[in-house]
TrEMBL record:
Pfam families: HepT-like (PF01934)
Nucleotide-binding is among the record's keywords: yes
Organism domain of life: Bacteria
Gene Ontology CC annotations of this record: toxin-antitoxin complex
UniProt protein name: Uncharacterized protein with HEPN domain
Protein family (similarity comment): Belongs to the HepT RNase toxin family.
Keywords: Hydrolase, Nuclease, Nucleotide-binding, Phosphoprotein, Toxin-antitoxin system
GO molecular function: hydrolase activity; nucleotide binding; RNA nuclease activity
PANTHER family: RNASE MJ1380-RELATED, UPF0331 PROTEIN MJ0127
Length: 130
């Protein structure tokens, strides 16, 4: 689970960075600023790649998180970057990532608590005294 926790944190960071890149700017302004546009595409790439690497066990535990959406968007950015509609990225960052980040934070909080728990020894796990 530690790996998944690292991946969730990376996803949160990438999503928040994407949000900050579009904050207070129109899609046209983002599209016209090559550095900002490229940074936005990069953060969506990181977000999607990390989403594909999260274990199936974690995905099953948190079924309300739309795990496939970032991966699909990542594939579009990576394989069709010359024709990516920046307005789609802008809308996603400004209108959809807020809820997504909230869901990721909730999942990360659960994994953090579990990560802090000491491992159960053999006798404690079996309920016997040795």
């Amino acid at each position: 689970m530690k790996r998944d926790l690292i991946l969730l944190r990376e996803m949160i960071n990438a999503a928040e960075q994407a949000q900050s890149l579009v904050e207070g700017r129109t899609a046209s302004e983002v599209d016209g600023d090559r550095l900002r546009r490229d940074a936005l595409m990069w953060n969506f790439t990181v977000l999607g790649e990390a989403a594909t690497l999260v274990s199936d066990a974690t995905k099953v535990r948190f079924p309300t998180i739309p795990w496939r959406n970032p991966a699909r968007l990542r594939n579009r950015v990576v394989h069709g970057y010359w024709s990516v509609d920046v307005s789609v990225l802008h809308t996603t960052a400004s209108e959809q990532l807020g809820e997504f980040v909230r869901q990721l934070r909730d999942a990360a909080a659960v994994l953090e608590v579990e990560d802090e728990q000491p491992p159960v020894s053999g006798s404690e796990a079996s309920g016997t005294d040795e």
